Amino acid sequence: MIHQVVSAFVSQLNEFIRNELGLADDMVIASNIMDINGGALMQIENKVCVFVQNIEEEKLLKNTSFQANAGMAPPMFINIYVVIAANFPEPNYMEALRYISLVVEFFQGKPLFDRSNSPELPPSIDKVALEFYNQSIQDLNNLWSLIGAKYIPSVVYKVKMLPFHQQMIKQDVGKIMSGEDLGAARKKLLENLAALGLEEALLRRKKDDDQRS
User: Fold this and answer.
1) Domain co-membership, 142 together with 189
2) 39 with 86, same domain?
3) Pick from 207, 9, 210: which is nearest to 103 by CA?
4) Please, which residues have CB within 8 angstroms of residue 6's CB and are 6 or more apart in sequence?
5) By three-state DSSP, how is residue 192 classified?
6) Whole-model pTM?
């Protein structure tokens, strides 16, 4: 579900920036800043990068007595901290500031995503609220040291109280296919294609026979 929520932000922010600047290409991408080995990722150069900084449980709602079904644990609510960073190396630093300004403008005008304005949200989510999250200099230092990169113009938004419950997670994740499952699926696909080809060949033969008779 988290990936669907972040994807909705990225999609709509892309549309907003394209319209504001008259661009044809997407400028916002969901991606880490660095790869797993600590190297810079080339695909985010001259792009606005969106990634999750932290996921935490909302403690205020932890002890709710709500229960969807007998024997089922109450839903857990989580907050997500999303970083949006403008990765425009020199000499494009002013472009980075321009894009960060557009990001702030977009979320200032749309702090709430719901069914009416964001149909791409997952079915289990009625609405998503965001708020600008202030970070101290120490917080920033800790974040970028953890990432292993130099600071670039960025903002952080807190996505508040996403609900998680057991049945919803099962529906969202679905079954992960093993190698054996993939092999069986491939075999079935090939069988279906072969059967389709044979059926088409028989139809063509029947058509030829009808034309000769």
Assistant:
1) no
2) yes
3) 9
4) 30, 50, 52, 80, 82
5) helix
6) 0.72
